[in-house]
Amino acid sequence: MKKRDYVISVKGMQSYADALMENTDIEMMSECDLTLEDGKYFAEYEETEATGMEGTTTTIEVGGEYVSIVRSGKVSTTLLFIKGRQTTSYYDTPFGTMIMGITTDDITTDLTLDGGKVSVTYSISMNNIYTGKNTFEINIRKF
Q1: 98: pLDDT strictly greater than 60
Q2: CATH number of the domain that 111 lies in?
Q3: pTM higher than the cut 0.85
Q4: In what order do the strands lie in the sheet with 6-16?
Q5: What's the chain's average pLDDT?
């Protein structure tokens, strides 16, 4: 296993469209790599049992106007967040494939090779059914 030089914290906040469901906040921490290539930042880490995606590698790409999340392994997907736009992805899980629609409301990035923050607010639909509004916040810091 290679040495990772950064710690990543990802906090997700979900507000569900179904009034019977409670809003949820989930936070995870892991060691990660952070690189800069062609003006884009790449953070890569291994998911843990805590996220339910153990055996999955996640790569977060932060470009000028977008953020993408690519997962491969137990869960496979590519999620693309572009402010003011709707994107569609297939979300492959051990339980089946879902179609995920994402409409990104806001993206804030302040990232350097010393670390930093990324925040994304978006609405989500699963199999064409609106499920709610979500935010995720990523904090990366050097060891």
Answers
A1: yes
A2: 2.40.128.20
A3: yes
A4: 77-82, 66-73, 56-62, 40-46, 24-37, 6-16, 129-142, 115-126, 96-112, 86-93
A5: 91
- Residues 81 and 67: beta-carbon distance below 8 Å: yes
- Residues 6 or more apart whose CB falls under 8 angstroms from that of 42 comprise 33, 34, 35, 36, 59, 60, 61, 62
Name the domain count of the chain.
1
**What is the length of the chain?**
143
The identity of residue 103, as a single letter, is T
Q: Does the structure show a pLDDT above 60 at 1?
A: no
36 is a domain residue = yes
The pLDDT assigned to 48 comes to: 82
Domain that residue 79 falls in: 6-142
Q: Is residue 1 part of a domain?
A: no
55 within some domain? yes
